[in-house]
Amino acid sequence: MEKPSVSLWVKMEPFIVGALQIPPPSKFSMHYLRKMSTYVRMRSGRGYYPYLTWSMWRHIACGKLQLEKELAWLYFELFDSLVEQTSEERLEWAEVISGCVTEEETEKQRNRLSVDTLQFLLFLYIQQLNKVSLRTSLLGDEWPNPKSKSHSGLKESANQIKNWNDNYHHDFVENHLQDLLELLLDPDQLSASSHSMNSSLLSPKAVQALSFLIEGSVDQNRTVYPLHELALWQPLHAKSGFSKLSKAFSCAKFESWLRTCLTGNPFGATACLTSGRKLAWAQQVEGTTKRAKIACNTHIVSSVHRVIVMSQVYKQTLAKSSVTLEDTHMRIHRCCESFIYLLSPLRSVTIEKCRNSTFVLGPVQTVVHLHSCDNVKLVAVCHRLSLSSTNGCTLHVLTPTRPLILLGNQAITFAPFHTHYPMLEDHMGRTGLATVPNNWDNPMIVCKENCDREVFRLLPSSEFYPFVVPFEMEGDTTEIPGGLPPAYQKALSQREQRIRIWQKTVKEAELTKNQRKTFQMLVENKFYEWLVHTGSRQQLDSLVLPAAGSKQAAG
């Protein structure tokens, strides 16, 4: 009988969604995580192990690792957002938190939460993904580009985002595999120097925790299995090192098996670009050599692995609402002077190196991250928003978590979510996103020592205008979910009142036919000048499509 051919690979989602794009706290090093691993096991069943409660993590993070409470909660909640939950469970949690009036009530509800301890340890370890390496910096890989907008003294790359590089994920896990396994070993399986031994045994629960990072297949990627299911499969026991007698894995054999079978992610961004299906969503703009590139793997994979990469959309309006978009991890790269509407529920969105563009997104279940963008307007409902190396961006968001201001940002403007489209509330329900709580106006500066405290502002109500999605779609949403904050609604009402007064004044002026004609021409000329000055003319022109343009979003 032919032996099964096993392929294992590193999952993308923990890195895309779970790894913050900043150097980790210094005490997330292996030395301290190993101490934490021993500490929680010694307190098994008391809120530390096998499940770690928020109150116990707060004790460790603030008391042992010297983190601020808000940062401790950020990591805890970030990991919790990776845990599979139904939309109903997410909406129920939103309702509970929005009902809390005091900080004490909020803490009481947070104390109900717990996470898998071993998986959480792995999650803390992979924050090293964005650790600045002095050795690598000296070799040139992480030396700041002269055009970098990072004004901190850190030698971080402002031009490369590791969270989407699946080759880097593979190398990271492969190079740190021994550390990862040692974090999962019981203390009595470690040497006096806290390292694994040839005789060390790894429990099935530890291998199950490693499924947080690794999965695989035995049928050429047609069916994907968690790592622990493959490792415990009878035909693979000899290779994976599982013993029925000890009901555990030989750590040395298991590590060797992993290294032998570990390969590139067949569903990652790299595979999507090289062998994914090309999407003809964008047009080629005359007079430019830039050609839009859009690729997806949604035709061959389950919802967990869906990826779309969009690059170099230039000077046009692109609008889509389709099954192809739903539940995808979306990377939007190097788009310029464009208006992009993606009106479907999405899993995550990364907008990187884009300029002078507007992005209107359907609800994003996990995170929207902007990196190295200039003069970008974002309109989105999302679970989390984070920013790094951006300049002059305006963010109209509805989000239950505090927007994260990471490194290298300038002139950020936060504003309330100000639009709707017919399917919006339905899409919000599917992604588990509610209208409350809404923390759009309460951003968190994560790297305070390397960030100007005046890096952001809240949009003055006098500058606020609602946004209209200019496409016909089916659906029931007819107004902005949750409405507008009172100050912005008041400013809008006052502006509408001034328009009514102006219209009344014109009507009562009793102009002659020639005067009305002259007046109309004057108003139209002024309006045209405004369209050109604000760049709105380009958007209007790009909405005129060859056929059925008004229904493009439904295509």
UniProtKB/TrEMBL annotation:
Residues 288-433 form the C-CAP/cofactor C-like domain. PROSITE patterns: C_CAP_COFACTOR_C. One of its GO terms (biological process) is maintenance of centrosome location. SUPFAM superfamilies: C-terminal domain of adenylylcyclase associated protein. The keyword Cytoplasm applies. It is found in: Cytoplasm, Cytoskeleton, Microtubule organizing center, Centrosome; Cytoplasm, Cytoskeleton, Spindle pole. GO terms for cellular component: spindle pole centrosome. Keywords: Cytoplasm, Cytoskeleton. Belongs to the TBCC family. This is TBCC domain-containing protein 1.
